[in-house]
């Protein structure tokens, strides 16, 4: 096995174990278990399938996987909360409301855009595990949030020169196709710090491929980035 691939596999395994582990999920979230369905999870958490689909970006609610973490209560401060199914008691509604208000609003990390440019491809969870941002070669690539570099190299075919930054026990970000990497494994980086130069390694055009991973699973970066 190629030395770079072994290094990448090791880094990803360590990061994934740290992210997924056996740590309990926070209030308002649920980890999928064997035999679960979206309708069952909705029923047991006194919400609706439509709300679960909206909160978790589930295009296909039948595609949930064991170990996947789902939001089962609305984010704190949301304008509306899910309506409890008919037959639920007022005490159940109050309990759900209290659970929702105890959550922190938004994602666990606050991200900034990793590069200037045009988004030429969005996230679909299948063919695209992140977003592609196009600009000129050498465009600065910055850390979307503060963290530690857990991988810096070109050992994964199709990604070119890539960086992976771990932000906490839940979130990782990945930056691919760079022309040059400006940080090393083990280095601590600050949000907004330049970490690479945009390039076209293992790509047919100059761009940054940017991914966000929550508890080891790819998620849509657009859900975490500020509008611009």
From TrEMBL:
* Lipoprotein is among the record's keywords: yes
- Its name, as the record gives it, is Lipoprotein NlpD
Q: Where is this region: Disordered?
A: 76-109
Q: Where is the signal peptide?
A: 1-25
Q: Which organism is it from?
A: Caballeronia hypogeia
GO CC, alphabetical: cell division site; cell outer membrane
Gene3D superfamilies per the record? Answer: Glucose Permease (Domain IIA), LysM domain
Q: Give the matching InterPro entries.
A: Cell_wall_metabolism_enzyme, Dup_hybrid_motif, LysM, LysM_dom_sf, M23ase_b-sheet_dom
């Amino acid at each position: 096995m190629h030395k770079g691939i072994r290094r990448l596999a090791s880094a990803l395994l360590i990061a994934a174990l740290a992210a997924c582990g056996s740590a309990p999920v926070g209030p308002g979230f649920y980890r999928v278990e064997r035999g679960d369905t979206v309708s069952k999870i909705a029923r047991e958490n006194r919400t609706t399938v439509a709300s679960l689909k909206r909160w978790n970006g589930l295009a296909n609610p039948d595609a949930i996987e064991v170990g996947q973490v789902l939001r089962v209560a609305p984010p704190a401060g949301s304008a509306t909360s899910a309506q409890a199914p008919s037959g639920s008691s007022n005490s159940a509604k109050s309990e759900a409301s209290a659970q929702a208000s105890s959550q922190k609003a938004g994602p666990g990390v606050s991200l900034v855009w990793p590069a200037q440019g045009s988004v030429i491809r969005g996230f679909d969870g299948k063919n695209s595990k992140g977003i592609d941002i196009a600009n000129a070669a050498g465009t600065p690539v910055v850390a979307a949030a503060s963290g530690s570099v857990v991988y810096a190299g070109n050992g994964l075919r199709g990604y070119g020169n890539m960086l992976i930054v771990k932000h906490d026990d839940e979130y990782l970000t990945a930056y691919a196709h760079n022309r040059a990497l400006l940080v090393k494994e083990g280095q601590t980086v600050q949000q907004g710090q330049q970490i690479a130069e945009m390039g076209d390694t293992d790509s047919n055009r100059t761009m940054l491929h940017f991914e966000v991973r929550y508890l080891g699973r790819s998620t849509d970066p657009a859900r975490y980035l500020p509008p611009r």
